[in-house]
């Protein structure tokens, strides 16, 4: 029997979920739920489009709803609301607000007998797992997370809000010398600006004051002021041609010491190189949906994170095959 | 309350477990159990040494027994036998025989109400997890495991058994061009001899026929015949000085494709660089012992692998702290 998945929200992430379901023979995409007029939305694989308000009438047709909205305003409302009727998966990624989000979802999912997984994806998500496993195995150590080289949508958006900017892409780039130092096992202390730099490709309006735009970018608190930032002004054509994708990735590195006097060093590195941030995130969410379905079947309800999921639950393979083929 | 750990077997791995317990404030090493005369064994940290036969009388003093014997002859007998009285952890690493070992341990542990974890360590173990997570998230893909650069004790032992050999160390070395091809996401098909080569440092008896020894090494089936193998004859002093350690490591790389036509490539890499193979393996076993203790407390009995363990169970941190600090 196929696991029936609903897709709630249909931007880059929703499209990625739709395509990822097609790679998993044990799942079926039931349809997309949107706040837009359904007739204006065309899906990649031809699955039906429903109005978001119709979801409530389809509880018997969907085993897991994957929420593909944003963390700023959509998910804090949608995940608790939908967890009352569905098993749900989201990619809530505002790290500081995860505990609050978990508490809100937990109360509702538990009462409704549903299973919810929050903060799936790669960070939070696979990177969080790498941090947990690394620290559990090497408690005398230190971990480092590097992001990039990749496009930060938040930073690109921040540049676009500056007066006189038509469009922009921002790449977060790990600083090579920092990566090398960490990989050596030397456990350096690294300040924020010693780990990453930022490179911005900006399309300015004709006649705009580029010096002012560059200054506004470089002095923007939180986003750029603490980093070495490079700004390139380019044409809209060049931006579209050379910077159209959404690649991303990064590394979680755990350095630790063992032995009677910490004489043996160990370096554990988990690294991602992703052509499409959204499609990889979607692929993680789809594996999480399988786990959520199985946990709910087993009576394990409430709000979960990847930290709570027995890894075997994520895989389409049977436990027997996993042990034989992958252990 | 501290988790009380027994160490069954006291070679490199047992010593590593003893030292690793010292890094985990929520655990106590109760003592070492040995088949040797206890008075002849001196522990690193001064913990008591008992005869292996005394273990049966100490079931109320030990929460988890970590088995530190070998996979060839010790563990197939010891793990089932001890799982009747104790929660146990082992590092059984004969991949082809894991299903059989699991079945044997499962029957006994389940009946006794004990929890057993088999095949902890890094391969099987952390590498197995990397293969599982990689495949669950990127089902359209391929995985590659590289080992080394590191000392293979099995291959070193095989050389030592050759007539005229005093001592030897064998390094397994991943072939750079293969690693580069895999990391590019190109998903190459690689034959055995295209992934690894073998470098041997051999001390021969005075007057031994070195050409014969080299030939016997290079033509040894399974161990060397399928690989590019280099043999260096060196003095015992040089072997001890330059090749005394047991470093190891390697990479599990999952390459996958997403998108409507597989147009986006993704490369997930989990890599280990270990100064001490035994101490890192021991560190994994100790984290597994924590999980086994918790699973047993929760009534989850029988034979488990790392695939079955919710990651949070491995960490000394509370779920709340994990979510706040690492998610």
Provide the fold topology.
The structure is a homodimer of 327-residue chains.
Chain A: E1 3-8, H1 12-21, E2 27-34, E3 49-51, E4 64-67, H2 74-82, E5 87-89, H3 98-112, E6 115-117, H4 126-137, E7 141-147, E8 150-151, H5 153-160, E9 165-174, H6 176-183, H7 192-195, E10 196-204, H8 210-218, E11 228-233, H9 236-242, E12 248-258, E13 264-274, H10 277-297, E14 302-304, H11 319-325
Parallel strand pairs in A: 1-2, 1-4, 2-3, 4-5, 5-6, 6-14, 10-11
Antiparallel strand pairs in A: 7-12, 8-9, 9-10, 12-13
Helix pairs in contact in A: 1-10, 2-3
Would you mind describing this structure in some detail?
- 2 copies of one chain form a homodimer.
- In chain A, helix 1 (12-21) links the parallel strand 1 (3-8) and strand 2.
- The model of chain A has no long low-confidence stretch (mean pLDDT 97).
- In chain A, strands 3-2-1-4-5-6-14 form a 7-stranded parallel sheet, sandwiched between helices.
- The first copy, chain A, contains 11 helices and 14 strands.
- The longest helix of chain A is centred in the last third of the chain and has 21 residues, at 277-297.
- With 327 residues, chain A is an alpha/beta fold.
- Helix content of chain A is 34%, strand content 26%.
- Chain A has helices spanning 12-21, 74-82, 98-112, 126-137, 153-160, 176-183, 192-195, 210-218, 236-242, 277-297, 319-325, and strands at 3-8, 27-34, 49-51, 64-67, 87-89, 115-117, 141-147, 150-151, 165-174, 196-204, 228-233, 248-258, 264-274, 302-304.
- In chain A, helix 2 runs parallel beside helix 3.
- At the A-B interface, helix 1, helix 3, helix 4, strand 13 and helix 10 of A face helix 1, helix 3, helix 4, strand 13 and helix 10 of B.
- Strand 13 (264-274) of chain A pairs antiparallel with strand 13 (264-274) of chain B, so a sheet runs across the interface.
